[in-house]
Design goal:
The protein is of the alpha/beta class and about 775 residues long. The protein has 29 helices and 21 strands. It folds into five domains: about 140 residues, Distorted Sandwich (Calcium-transporting ATPase, cytoplasmic transduction domain A), CATH 2.70.150.10; about 55 residues, no CATH class; about 210 residues, Up-down Bundle (Calcium-transporting ATPase, transmembrane domain), CATH 1.20.1110; about 160 residues, HAD superfamily/HAD-like (Rossmann fold), CATH 3.40.50; about 130 residues, Calcium-transporting ATPase, cytoplasmic domain N (3-Layer(aba) Sandwich), CATH 3.40.1110.10. About 55% of the residues lie in helices and about 15% in strands. Helix 24 packs antiparallel against helix 27. It is elongated.
Length: about 775
């Protein structure tokens, strides 16, 4: 669309809008800002009571109230509140990505109103306004140039590593920075309708699915089915035997309490919080705890090229000399450059001259003309041996036109460089007639640690993919340098169905919406996806990915959207995050296996023992004490010494239940042997309650020793905190039983028998464990 057509469509002119019309359009289009969606903190807290584990606790509260067991009810209420508060405090963080995007738009801009230039807040500009931008300005809205030429840095938006020249009728996007020139522009889109604003909408709508929540829901589902089945069996049995339902209700309560994985969410949170603290010391700040667990499962890592794989800084890659020497070519190019301008091309040439030891004598330079977008070159006038020599540096097609060398020959060499992903400038000199000296190829080179990172990721069975807004040639060349040799695809090829995302290792010419959709498509295909980035253009994908990683030089928007923020230069911390995530997974797996086994052991043993001996072998209070003794002490599993695996970890609830159920059946048998021992010791029923409590606690603690090591239990030592907590737990329960505190007193030798028996049973189970893990995982 031409400038005149755009002016007509927006019903404006080159003289701008009137203030009255601008106010009318604000009411029509809204302010040039991003609307923020805020969640009520109270509702956010209340959601912590709406999940599988809270449901089970809430049902238990109702049952204990109906049975008049108020002490039990208060304890369970405490557990319910404890879980809710821990979850809320650990997971809540300010959703400030949108706020940062909003503040980026809150700048002042020069606008033409009522025929006069005014400086107003950028939030007040509307479609149809005429604005003036110049060096250093942030473009406040999407706009079409109607006068002048500029060069803009839009790497934070599109991922393109090089500045882009914009002329009349071309579009500049909000959030871009003017690097050269000045221009008058027609505002065509504001607020959420801008390129920048659409990115904001994606950030707000993006969000990774919580795999931890799915895991807990799956576990609770199976435990509820088990509960209902056992209570049904007991009810049927009581009807057949003429046992009053009032006698079965306490049993139902015991089964319900025993089967609640109370500490499961809290233990996961603690394990991940400890991991987050450890990772922060190594240069990775975790802003979403679940990202640690997701890092263990991640099997694809999408990496933004610009600023992540590469340094987002231009370097001289190669030169092609047509006349003279390379030293002369670089020397003259440096004389036609200005370090103070901070222009990336000028800095690349000057730095290259220093690396090569080429001394630039600026005293011979009599005049310097900065880059002019109109002529697309810089110029310098130098004096050598009394002769004035003019130097020109700029776009090859421009320099070729002012020289005597053939245009086609130069452009052929430029195309050769372009195929390797290089940006090319030409240098010419002469007194009267200009002659081209040569070409200088520039590129944004990979970080020093990028290749090592790719190798490490492959060893860890994580597939690396490069995603970039740059063209396919640049992307393919960089991918080769860092060791990614798979297919290089344009995003248009994927949209047209010519190939799939999974078949491509490099995806080029990608826009922000595409990055976001790429992550979603990979997730739909069953991948746990990571995404690295540094710019606004990466924010939606960073937030959508299970593992969104913002690099050290990332924009505030990218940092706010990511779940992991790197604080050190380079990418090596990503590998550490994966390794730590897999270690934490091993700890959580140990706790989960132990919890499921203990839950099945308790509910099955209590049910079957009642059917056999016709009395309850424990009390509801003992079961609550068991929860405290086992669950909250074994939270120290979060500190255990573990090894990371070389493959991505995935939770499989079905396999977990089969493995746990197989081992739990042995623990049920252990319980019956323990019950027989208790009767052999001549213990009364109240004393048997205490003996069974000891048996279940000690069995649970020794099971931790067995389960924590996937090989034989002595293959590795537990952490000192886990060891100390288990020893402390044994001592506390033993003293309570011997002294009769909170429970019925039993002889010290009975405690010793329970301890020795459960230890010997653990040795036997350790042999069976290896076969179960081998068969079911």
């Amino acid at each position: 669309m031409s400038v005149n057509e755009a002016l007509a469509q927006l019903q404006t002119s080159e003289n701008g809008l009137s203030e009255q019309e601008a106010l009318r359009r604000i009411s029509m289009y809204g302010y040039n800002e991003v609307k923020e969606r805020k969640e009520n903190h109270f509702l956010k807290f209340m959601k912590k009571f709406w999940a599988p584990v809270p449901w089970m606790l809430e049902i238990t509260v109702v049952v204990t109230y109906l049975l008049g067991k108020f002490n039990d009810m208060y304890i369970i209420l405490f557990l319910l509140m404890f879980n809710a508060v821990v979850s809320y405090v650990q997971e809540s963080r300010a959703e400030n990505a949108v706020a940062i995007l909003k503040s980026k738009l809150s700048v002042k801009t020069r606008v033409l109103r009522d025929g006069q230039w005014k400086l107003i807040q950028a939030r007040e500009i509307v479609p149809g306004d005429i604005i003036h931008v110049r060096l250093g300005d942030i473009i406040p809205a999407d706009a079409k140039l109607i006068k002048g030429e500029i060069e803009v840095d839009q790497s934070a938006l599109t991922g393109e590593s090089l500045s882009v020249e914009k002329g009349v009728s071309e579009i500049v996007y909000s959030g871009s920075i003017v690097k050269r020139g000045e221009a008058d522009c027609l505002v065509i889109s504001t607020g959420a309708n801008t390129y920048f604003g659409r990115t904001t909408e994606l950030v707000q709508s993006a969000g990774a699915h919580s795999h931890i929540e799915s895991l807990i829901f799956g576990i609770v589902k199976y435990l509820i089915i088990l509960d209902v089945g056992l209570v049904g069996i007991m009810t049927g049995y009581s009807i057949l035997k003429g046992i009053a339902i009032s006698q079965i209700l306490p049993f139902s309560l015991v089964v319900l309490i025993a089967s609640i994985p109370v500490a499961l969410p809290a233990t996961f949170t603690i394990a991940m919080a400890i991991g987050a603290l450890d990772m922060s010391k190594k240069g990775a700040i975790i802003s979403r705890l679940n990202a640690i667990e997701d890092a263990a499962s991640m099997d694809v890592l999408c990496m933004d090229k610009t600023g992540t794989i590469t340094e987002n800084k231009l370097y001289v890659a190669s030169t092609l000399v047509y006349k003279g020497s390379e030293n002369q070519l670089i020397s003259y190019a440096a004389l036609a450059s200005e370090e103070g301008s901070q222009d990336p091309i000028d800095l690349a040439i000057i730095n290259y001259a220093r690396e090569k030891g080429i001394v630039i004598d600026y005293s011979i330079r009599e005049k310097f003309t900065p880059f002019d977008p109109a002529i697309k070159r810089t110029e310098a006038l130098i004096k050598v041996n009394g002769d004035e020599i003019r130097i020109a540096k700029g776009a090859p097609q421009i320099i070729a036109q002012i020289c005597q060398r053939r245009y086609d020959e130069i452009m052929k060499d430029v195309d050769t460089f372009a195929l390797r992903g290089f940006r090319v400038i030409a240098v010419a000199s002469g007194s009267s007639k200009m002659e081209i000296l040569g070409l200088i190829a520039l590129y944004d080179r990979p970080r020093k640690d990028s290749k090592v990172l790719i190798e490490e990721l492959k060893k860890l069975s994580v597939e690396p993919k490069i995603i970039t807004g740059d063209n396919s040639s640049i992307a393919k060349e960089i991918a080769k340098e860092v060791g990614i040799n798979g297919n290089s695809c344009r995003i248009s090829d994927i949209k047209e169905g010519k190939t799939t995302i999974e078949q491509c290792s490099v995806l080029a010419e990608v826009f922000p919406e595409d990055k976001y959709l790429i992550v979603k498509e990979l997730q739909k295909s069953g991948h746990i996806t990571g995404m690295t980035g540094d710019g606004v253009n990466d924010a939606p994908a960073l937030k959508q990915a299970e593992v969104g990683i913002a690099v050290s030089n990332a924009t505030d928007v990218a940092r706010a959207s990511a779940s992991i923020v790197l604080t050190h230069e380079g990418l090596s911390d990503i590998v550490e995050a994966v390794k730590n995530g897999r270690k934490i997974y091993q700890r959580m797996l140990t706790y989960t296996l132990n919890k499921i086994m203990k839950t099945m052991q308790v509910v099955l043993f209590l049910t079957l023992s009642f059917l056999v001996v016709r009395y309850f072998v424990t009390t509801p209070f003992d079961v609550i004490l068991l929860l405290f003794a086992n669950d909250f002490v074994t939270m120290s599993i979060a500190t255990d010494n573990v090894r990371y695996s070389m493959k991505p970890e995935r939770w499989d609830v079905k396999k977990l239940m089969i493995s746990s159920g197989s081992l739990a059946s042995l623990l049920v048998i252990e319980g019956f042997f323990g019950l027989w021992i208790a009767e052999m010791l001549g213990l009364s029923i109240p004393q048997i309650h205490t003996f069974v409590l000891d048996l279940l606690v000690f069995s649970g603690l020794f099971t931790v020793f067995m389960i924590r090591e996937r090989k034989r239990f002595w293959h590795s030592m537990p952490s000192k905190w886990l060891l100390m907590s288990i020893i402390g737990d044994i001592l506390v329960i033993s003293l309570l039983s011997i002294l009769g505190i909170l429970v019925v007193r039993i002889p010290y030798y009975a405690v010793g028998v329970a301890l020795g028996f459960t230890f010997l049973w653990m040795l036997m189970m350790d042999l069976v464990k290896n076969e179960v893990f081998r068969r079911y995982g």
